[in-house]
Fold this sequence. Notes:
Strand content: under 5%
Largest sheet: none
Mean pLDDT: 77
Structural class: mainly alpha
Helix content: 55-70%
Amino acid sequence: MRWRDEDEGAEGAPTLCDDLDELCRLNERAIMALRPGLLDALDAMMEDLLGFPDVKGYAMSEVVSAVVSTYGYESIRSALRCSLPSLYLGLRLTLGSLLVGLVADLAVRGPAAEARLRRALEEGVSLREFARGEAYRGLRRRLNEALGWLRGELGAEPVDFTYRAYVTLSRPLQVAPGRGKGALAEAMDDVVGLPPSIGSCLDYGEGEEGALRRLLRRMHMAVDLARLSNGMVLYAWGYLTKAVDEEALESLRESIEEALNDLRDARRDEEA
């Protein structure tokens, strides 16, 4: 990079942000050439969150607003900067945050949304406990019933599927014993030379295009999986709280079906 500590703030000198903007422009060209649907999938995920109704008095509205401002836009920037750990972290934190909002509204008692959300955060919502523990058995049953129309498509109970999605989005960030880096960082070594946590240029030479296509395909599948899971959480929340109208529920249902179809197509592409 051109940026140096002594350059910061100097008039006319390039800054770190300038370099990252240029990196985004370079990577956008590579992504559009090799996997244009990836950016469309990120846009669709953002549109789902931005289009979610702002319902006063519910913790979920607080969560969605925070997610959009904190993680949502950063997911797009992370993809363009090829900062893959940041992308996966944003996807995972978005899904985890929505699940906290759901628990705060449906399993925590309290008069005010902020108080319920604060209690859920202070007590710590274990997603493993949410998916497996006795304390949430009744809530799991209600959620599975609300999303029962998806069972045949998912091949699992909806709550189990959502938990597995969270684990799947977490796995590339985990460091395996003896390897010293996460699986995602190892995959990045095939196509780039800079640490992926900083940001890398998706420049590739002869013989490297195939590896880059596979990397972008995995990113695309992760985004589709996150969008599907987010939609399931928001739909179940709206269905059970009755805080949104039928039009909003139908819009969420359409987003879920679209994400499911996109994920199915991506998996067929992976197997081909």
